[in-house]
TrEMBL record:
Coiled-coil blocks: none
InterPro entries the record matches: CHP03086, DinB/YfiT-like, Maleyloyr_isom, MDMPI_metal-binding
Domain Mycothiol-dependent maleylpyruvate isomerase metal-binding: 15-133
Protein name, entry field: TIGR03086 family metal-binding protein
Amino acid sequence: MTPQPPHDPRAVFSRALDQAQQQIAALSGGELDAPTPCADYDVRALLGHMVAVLHKLARIGTGGDAGDLPDVVEGVADDGWVGAFAGARAETERVWGDAPLDHPVTLPWATLPGHAALDAYTHEFTVHSWDLAHATGRRAALDPDLAVRALEAFPKFAPPEARSGHGPFGPVVSVPRNADVYTRLAAYLGRRP
């Protein structure tokens, strides 16, 4: 029996980055100090985190260790976030365009095959797009399919019973059953939509 090639998440990952980039491009300088649903980040720090994640993904995609890279990129001019994100994205997509998806990569929280790491970060960028949209009131522009995928995947990556109360995910927040998929996703991760 011939082994099946690994799942290829690159097209969906690219869609999640498109959505994030659109949210970033819509920002005005006056919104950078606004709070976000991520307790540790205002909009500026969240942008720095998103750019840092892309740098880390590029490093691990080459087999490197991203442990020495910062969690938040700082020092970007207020009008430079679109360029910073686009540059980091281009490098990440270049690296992962050639990276074997079945090879293990080491993340800060696990060692996974490359395709699983890209899946995980696809969902992270989906959530951070919601964080930006929530912080700025631009929620209508979000792709619901990305949220459905994230909501289906997060129980594997961040089950409620494994959360310590410290870190990026809090206890699940109750929302009405008819809440839209992004509200349900945010609530599952402990954000208060």
